[in-house]
Amino acid sequence: MTKPKSFLRQFFTHWGLWALMTLAVCAFALTLARIDAAKASHLAEEGADAQATVTGLNMTSTRSNNRTQRHFEVTVSFTVDGISHEGAQTVSEAFYRSLKTRDIIPVRYWTHDPSLTEIEPGHRANEALIGEVVAGVAAVLTLIFATLGWRWASAARWMVQNGVAREVTVTRLASFWSNFCATSFYRAVWQDTKGETRSRLHLIKHLPGVGKTTTILTDPAGLRPSLWAGDL
To answer: DSSP string spanning 89-158?
Structure first.
């Protein structure tokens, strides 16, 4: 058996990396939500209304995972104290389709900086709310992934310290297709006192073949499932 991985390496190899990724998403979404909330606050507390002319209606499309997502943007021009200003904002599809070029519509701008505008009423507050929801979901996922990673790393460390090594024969390789990275992964399967037991996911080249003998670590009391030495 090779030298076991450290607790931190076990944690980050299994679920811990996902926890870091969702934590980054949480921080990013929360930052954007705070920015949108600050803009909405500026407009609500220190904003003024103006009549603006719609100067542009732009729709763009992005495609990801065989799905097309459309983005709608409205640009306007308006005058404050004799000075012309322009504003642009991503809006909802319903609001976008209710407009046409040269329409006169009400907008709200920040008196300290008229470049900060709100073309669709309530849109910035809604964006802030969406950001907070995304951050909340990402935070929950971070907690789940971190818990799974901690439990696995703890189980692996316990088995390294207390488990009994024995030889078993691999009965089959169970396949798993990952759309995330377009790769097939496999688990080595063997018979244990608790029935059929599996390794964690690996590329097939890293697993012993069917009928081959491999080393596992077992709980002397028989309370915990056995673990493949290659996972430790």
So the answer is: EEE-HHHHHT--TT-EEEEEEETTEEEEEESSTTHHHHHHHHHHHHHHHHHHHHHHHHHHHHHHHHHHHH
- Flag whether 158 is in a domain: no
Domain that holds residue 178: 163-232
**In degrees rounded to 5, what are phi and psi of residue 16?**
-60, -35
Q: Predicted confidence band at 179 (pLDDT cuts at 50, 70, 90)?
A: low
| Number of domains within the chain | 1
Task: Give the C-alpha separation, 109 to 50, whole Å.
Answer: 8
Position 182 in a domain = yes
Cα 91–95–97 angle (5° rounding)?
Answer: 110
Mean of all residue pLDDT scores within the chain? 87
| pLDDT 10s digits, 206-224 | 778 888 888 888 888 878 8
DSSP-H helix ranges across 14-108: 17-46, 93-97
